[in-house]
Structures are given as C-alpha cells and as structure tokens.
Amino acid sequence: MPSGSVNGGSGKKSGAKSAKAISAAAKKSGGGRGLPKQRQIPWMVIGGVVAVVALIAVIAVSIVPKYQDQQKLAAWTPSESNQDPSTALEGIVTVDYPAGQHIDSTQRVAYDHTPPFGGPHDSIWATCTGVVYPEAIRTENAVHSLEHGAVWITYNPDLVDAAGVETLSAKVDGKSYTMMSPYPGQASPISLQSWGHQLTVDSADDERIDQFIASLRQNRYTYPEVGASCATIPGSYDPANPPPFDPSAPGPDAVPMTGGTVDSAEVQTDMQAPAGS
C-alpha cells in the first residue's frame, strides 16, 4: 500500500475530531453564533418580594402611628396613683358640683358656665353613646349625661370650619360615653366638658382634646354616678329629634345652681343602669 494512503486516513480522523471539538465549543458559547447564553431574570420572584415589602410598608404606616398615639395617651389614663390626669392639662377648669339635683323638662337652669359642665339638670339624660348631634341640644339634658361619665364636645359653628367639625366627629362617632353638638354663641371655637371639668381650645387638631377624653371619659374617680347608662331612654329622649337648644338667657324663674330636687328613685335607677350602654 502506498505510504500516502496511510497519512491521508490519519488526517481524516484528526480532522473529524477537530470538527467535533469545534462544534462542542460552539454549543457552549451560544450555538455557534459567538454570543454568550443570557440568564433568565426571575421576574416573578422579584415581583413577589416587591409586593411583600410594599405590604409591610402599608402595615407599618397604618399601625405604627396608632401605637405611638396609644403610647402618648398612656400617661393620661386614670389609675389609683393618678386619679385625675386632666389636672395636668394647660387651661383646665375644675369645679366641685353636687350630684343628683334634678329639674323637670319645662325648667331651665341659671348655669355658671357656658357651656355648663355640672349642676342641676333634667332628670332625663341626653343619649351619649357616641352621638354626633347635627343641631344644638338642650343643655339641661346634656349635663345629666356628664353625671354618667360622658364627655361632651361642643363647638361654635361660626368659628369652626367643616374640616374641623369632621376631625371632631371622628373622635366621637360611635364611641360610647361621648357626644358632640354645636353650641351657638360659645366664646371659644371648641369646648370640652365632663362632670366638673372644662377645657377650651382653638383648633380641632389640639392634642389636648384626646388627652381630655382619655383622662375623663368614664373616669370612675371624677363623676358621681359610676356605672350609669348613656343609652337612649325609649319614649323619653329621641336622639334623632332631641329637645331643642334655647339660646336666650335664663329668666328670673330659672333654677339657681344651688337649686333642683334630689330624686332618690331616679338616682338609684341611674346607678343600676348597664355600665356599657
């Protein structure tokens, strides 16, 4: 056999191996196009992470301020060692009023403060289960609610705008042992009343409003009839159509602050009413 034929066969085998090596290298480097194979971006995983982070942020924005507010108000919560935190409020006015002095529905009281926050009052209380009254209500009924541990927020409709009224309403609406109503002619834009306590402020954003409520709403150390009800008395008081406010000055026949009659049966009824209503 000629020597040239041997070298030729060996060359073919060597060439075939080289071709296979080149082909394998081409596949690894991108199918022979000379471009590296691109990695797939895990968009679903990234989207899931972003959604979780966003949810955590929303929860934090919602919960953290509420927690901080609760922490701030903790100092205004009554306790055995701090029975009346409201005394630390700048501008608070306190008066020691006797309880259980009642008048009838045709009488008026010559109150010593406007709005009043203690003294003789109607034998029927105004519903104070978180009611926002759109119109002014009879003061003699409202004062009885204070005797039951309620906080009454009043505002001068000529001095508080719609946004302010909305802010105040959110502090009252549906919250037991609170109520709110306009009080035409009151000197301050906003006034807060509980039994024997009053605070006036200029703005619905004043932090003392929440502090007053935290200190005095159902504070068993500061109001006379602990456990008395704030619920509606069927057939006697209609919160949808309450006794009207009388803006005129009380006449000479008005009951003085030292007047009124103590109705023992009525006081006993108040004391036995459900505490949570």
Share of helical residues:
25-40%
What is the CA-based Rg, rounded?
38 Å
Total number of β-strand segments? Answer: 9
Structural class: alpha/beta
Low-confidence regions: 264-269, 271-276
* Share of residues in strands: 5-15%
Q: What's the overall geometry?
A: elongated
Main beta sheet, described?
A: 6 strands, mixed
End-to-end C-alpha gap: 119 Å
Q: What do the pLDDT scores average to?
A: 86
Oligomer: single chain
Strand order of the largest sheet: 1-8-7-5-6-4
Helix run count: 6
Q: What is the element string, with H for helices and E for strands?
A: HHEEEEHEHEEEHEH
Kindly describe this structure.
The chain has 277 residues and is α/β, with parallel strands linked by helices. The protein has a domain at 90-247 and 260-272. The chain is built from six helices and nine strands, in the order ααββββαβαβββαβα. It has helices spanning 3-28, 43-74, 139-147, 162-172, 208-216, 264-272, and strands spanning 93-94, 101-103, 121-122, 129-132, 151-155, 178-182, 190-194, 197-201, 261-262. The strands form two sheets. It has a six-stranded mixed β-sheet. A three-stranded mixed β-sheet has the order 3-2-9. Helix 4 (162-172) links the parallel strand 5 and strand 6. The chain is elongated, with a radius of gyration of 38 Å.
